[in-house]
Structures are given as C-alpha cells and as structure tokens.
Specification:
The complex is a heterodimer of chains A (385) and B (300). With 385 residues, chain A is α/β, with parallel strands linked by helices. Helices cover 29% and strands 18% of the residues of chain A. In chain A, the strands form three sheets. In chain A, strands 8-5-9-10-4-11-12-13-14 form a nine-stranded mixed sheet, sandwiched between helices. Chain A is globular and about 70 Å long. With 300 residues, chain B is α/β, with parallel strands linked by helices. Helices cover 27% and strands 20% of the residues of chain B. Classes of the chains: A alpha/beta (385), B alpha/beta (300). At the A-B interface, loops of A face helix 6, helix 7 and helix 9 of B. Chain A: One of its GO terms (biological process) is tRNA wobble uridine modification. Chain A: Pathway: tRNA modification; 5-methoxycarbonylmethyl-2-thiouridine-tRNA biosynthesis. Chain A: Keywords: Cytoplasm, Nucleus, tRNA processing.
Chain lengths: 385, 300
Amino acid sequence: MAAVATCGSGAGTTGSAVATASKSNVTSFQRRGPRASGTNDSGPRLVSIAGTRPSVRNGQLLVSTGLPALDQLLGGGLAIGTVLLIEEDKYNIYSPLLFKCFLAEGIVNGHTLLVASAKEDPANILQELPAPLLDDNSKKEFDEDVYNHKTPESNIKMKIAWRYQLLPKMEIGPVSSRFGHYYDASKRIPQELIEASNWHGFFLPEKISSTLKVEPCSLTPGYIKLLQFIQNIIYEEGFDGSNPQKKQRNVLRIGIQNLGSPLWGDDICCAENGSNSHSLTKFLYVLRGLLRTSLSACIITMPTHLIQNKTIIARVTNLSDTVIGLESFIGSERETNPLYKDYHGLIHIRQIPRLNNLICDESDVKDLAFKLKRKLFTIEVDFIS
Amino acid sequence: MLDSLLSLGGLVLLRDSVEWEGRSLLKALVKKSALCGEQVHILGCEVSEEEFREGFDSDINNRLVYHDFFRDPLNWSKTEEALPGGPLGALRAICKRTDPGPVTIALDSLSWLLLHLPCTTLCQALHAVSHQDACPGDSSPVGKVSVLGLLHEELHGPGPVGALSSLAQTEVTLGGTKGQASAHILCRRPRQRPTDQTQWFSILPDFSLDLQEGPSVESQPYSDPHIPPVDPTTHLTFNLHLSKKEREAKDSLILPFQFSSEKQQALLRPRPGQATSHIFYEPDAYDDLDQEDPDDDLDI
C-alpha cells in the first residue's frame, strides 16, 4: 500500500519535471494524459499523513517509534505495515516504556490507537503515557540531562580537542518537530491530549468468557477475538481503503502487550510442547496480513525469556519484521561490572526487515546499551566492549 | 520485610522444597493476618482441615474461613456445601462477595492446583483475583486482596514456575544453612527495580514468626561479596595510570597551538551571523616580533 503510493509519487514528480521543461519549449516530450488539475486529487500524489515521512533509502512510509535514537537505528523509523517485536527484559521494567513511547507518539501526531492487553486495562495504560517534551524546551532539557551526569574526569576542559566540548554525547541526527519527539518519563501525558485522541482498547478479561471450548490446532480464543477486533477497527475506520475516508487519512497504531504470556490463554510459557503451540505463530501470520493491507503499524512486547521451546522464538522472530531484544542488567553479574556502570542494559537488534529491497538497513554499530535517566531513555553505543 | 509481605497486596509466592518446607511459614503468615483483623480464606487442597488447623488457637480458628477440597476434590459426594466450579469457582466467589476490607487468601497448594488445572487458566484466575481493584462495574471500594500461594518448586518444570513468578508481586524462596531457615524475598513493584533481601527466621511452635539475624544478613541488591568488582585495567600491556609527577608534567606542557580561553569561548559560542571576521593572533614562544622588513638588509 505504501509502496504503491510512492511509485505513484515517482510518476508525479516526473510529470512536473516534464511540465517545466515543456514550458521552455526545448524538448519534444509530451505529457501523457490530462494531469489532475488542482491539489485535491489523491491518486498519484504522495500520501502526506501527519507524523509520517518517506524513507530516504527505499521509499517506504515510516512512522516514528517514539524514541528518535531507536528510529535512527532502524533506518529512519518503523515502516507502515510492519510489526515491531520487543523481547521483554526479565523483570519487565524497560519494555513498557518503549511501548508507551510508541503510543504517546501516536497521540502527539494524532494517529488512531488500538491498545490490547491481558494484564492491564488499556485506559490505565493510556493514563500512564509519558509527557512529550515540546520543541523549545526539548533541546534545553536534553542538554541539561546530558551534562548533569558528567563524570569527574570529563569535567576537565579539553585542551587539545576543545572544539568537541559542546558536542552532545549521543548522535541524534536531525529531528524535525513533525517526526520524532522526546518524552519525559517522569511526567504523565496531559489529560486533554488523551481525550482529544481517538483510541480503542481491548482488555482480554472483559471480552472473553471462561467457558469457551478450544479446538486443537487452532488459535487460542483470546487471539481469535483480538484478530477480529483489529479487523473490525481497520474495516470500520477505513484504514485499508475499503471505506473511503472522508477526513484526512490517518495511521492506526496497534500496541499489544505481553503477547504469549499465560494471561492471553497461551501455554507456550508454561509447557514445552503444549497443545496450542502453533497458536502464536498463526496469530502473527494473520496479523501481518492485516497490517500489510492497511495503513497501520504494530508494536508487540513478548516475554520471550519465559518461552520454553526455543524453536518458537525462532519462528516468532522470522514472522515479525523488526525484532529488538532488551536485556537489563538487574540481577545479572553485569550489574556490578564497572564497565557497565553507566548503563541499565543492552539493546540487541535482532532483525531488520528487507522491504522491497535486496539488502536491509543495518546500522554500523552492534553494541548498543541503554540507560533510563531520570527523564529520558537514551540509547548509546557501548564503547567499552 | 518478612512481616510486611502482605501489606503490598497481590500474589505472594512461597517457593519451598523438600529440605525447607513452607507450610509452617504459610500458617505463620495466615495467623498474622488473622490477628490483624483481615478476612482470611483458606483453600485447602493438599492436607486435611484438621492438620491445617492444628497449632492455631481457637480464636484464630474461628476467624479462618476454610474451603475444603482435600476430602472430596471432585465432588463425588454431591453435597450442598461444596462450591460449584472447584477451587477456581471458590476463588471467584471470594472475589465477588468480598466486603470492603483487606482480604487474604491462602492457597494451600498452588502445586496441587497446577497439577489439576491448566496453567493458563490458573494464571488468569490468579491475576483476576489479585488485581481486583481494576474490576469493572464495581463502584464500592474494595479492600486489597493478598493471595498467598505455596508452590513446591521441585514438582514443576521451569515453565509453570517462571509463568507464576512473572505474575507474582513478591516471591519468597525458602532456603537455609545448618538448621537455620532463611527466606530470600524478591519484591517486584510495578515500573520499579525489583528489590531483594534475605531474612533469617524461625517459626515458633504457636506459629508466630521470629525474625533473626542469622549467620550473615545481606541486603544489597544482588551483589556477591566473594567476587570483587572487575577492574578492567588489570591485565593490560600498557599503563593507563598517571603518577602525580607525570600528571603535573602533562599539565604544564605548552601545546604548539595554544589558544587563549577567550578565543576558545568566542569560537565555541554559536553566533547567529558573522558580520566581521576576526583574526586572533597570539605570538608563539619562537616568534620574532621585529617590525623591520628583512628585505632591507639585502644589498642590491
């Protein structure tokens, strides 16, 4: 869907180039067919939805994940129509933050949200979203945060390389105010932003009764309900182009929390060879089909450290598009290791998709560590290891 | 810490093993919450009611509400007293008719429930019970619910134990050395780092809890005192440290292109526009500031 739009845009721009050339009468190229007059034709135009931008590498339409550092590592953002899978850390402290930043980015950009969870009520999840840092304050607070944590050695002014003194510690490429935003993890999002947004919630204990019979080799009832819910929302609100949207086109951001945990009714965390071991993989397959044919992007957090059968993890990774693993240092021996004392954990980028491409958009650095400062979640290159 | 386990609410998992049994700790915690005036419900599945009530005095026994699933677990005798739906039905019934006030539910054994029920159903039921404050349609403020579950961790594989511990707010693992029992308490608060603590204790014959100092009391977060912190500079082939004399010599070295600090600040300050360009010149040590033209010496 996004690829068709960009092909159309290519034709559009060639058309305009030809138009300017023919004005000067130096070429014999003729424009083919009547060009759409006016700007209200949405056919061959580039789809300009708030909060999206086309990728500079392969033309895919991208949305921001809520963390500009993560956007940069993924090649500009998350492509519309794809799934971002986050493998949760062991005590589930940092993955909800990424999840909430994704949703908060949707609210700030005016996208429609769909929040699905078996653990918490989606209304409560939305109440706990982090507050966005507005443009004029964001750079100032960001710099403040960077300089507050300087170690004593780096407080010495550099004598030889003094021009690098003011360089920020983390590379944050050009962040325009329309694409990626910074979020303050210590404050809550203002209530009026939540009320102004359009969101749908799916809370599993409300939607399902406990006496449903499960047939073998089919999806768990919770997954079936969730897929039906997503499909209904996509169809009714016209994200797949079936109902022509009268208002401006919008993006649907889907967030599914703790998929695969026993609270969804799936037993892959409990047993190695359960009766429904294909349920999760089938769910992901159907979900990706739904996403590919609509203007939506999905984030899923999954407790992969609890999954007993390692082949399921491999299949789940193959069935998702972008996979990121979080490994926190709490409880491991790395917590006391002075090499890692500045960081709270490591980020592993396990998979990046190849969308309409032969190669994928890998970043050069592979050793990434994250830390949650008082306000911001930053991802830095781990220079030590 | 051990005596304030129930104040946090939620699911408290007591993991015991063959060497260090947990039922006496369970009974001690039940007695404590009964004395605090909370409603206490017991789902007894593993031992008989007489054996569970043994050791409690009569006023505590009167406060306990005991649901017996030991004598007739499958309800073959079809009496009126048996609650429909088995243990899970009893759990849901306790949820629904709870009066405002804290409730403690003791599951005599989660292992028994895991062996008789699918793990996912049990997890969903426990989650629904322990998060009752999010129950929809309930306008009356319900007191907090604490669920104490006894789990024999040797009976189960890592799967169910991992699933239950990810649901639990507090996890108490029993262990000990040389006849002294200890409880390793891991407390997971939402959105905060988990804290852990080891507490040595013993249970007195009347099931009251006696906290002790024990051989060593550790309350640091997960640090093993036997392994010293890793120093990355120990095995390098080059020297990373500077002695004091070396540092002084380094500081007093004159760099070849030494800008003064005012020039540095002027260059570092971001300027909106540059109207004029400045030339900063500072004479070097070897500079000759003679104003004469050296070509004057030529004799042509």
